[in-house]
Design goal:
Length: 122
Amino acid sequence: MLPSHPLFLPLFGSVASAANLWATHYSGTINYLSFNDNALTLSSSTPTGNKLPSWITYDSAGKALYIPDEVFYGAAGGNLVSFSVGTNGSVTAAGKGSTPLGVVATALYGGADGKSFIANAH
């Protein structure tokens, strides 16, 4: 965290003036948020198909998001869903695979490119 010192304002003041991000919600959605002029707004919301979507792993080379289902009871297992990412931040469902119950986080690893596989962890 940067201290709130006037010296840093010219250096970092404009860096955080506009940003976009994705966030999941336990309502089952992935949300695209925009931050402009000190306001955070919901630009779009897309159902994931997961009961408790958690961690978002972004694959910059493949322009994809991977989202596990943290569901930990009342089901045989969870899901790992993938979305392709458009140039404007829009997402389109791309795939779905099964996971054990309780998967919270994922990471890309291994293979010739260093990220051909996805590790799931709680």
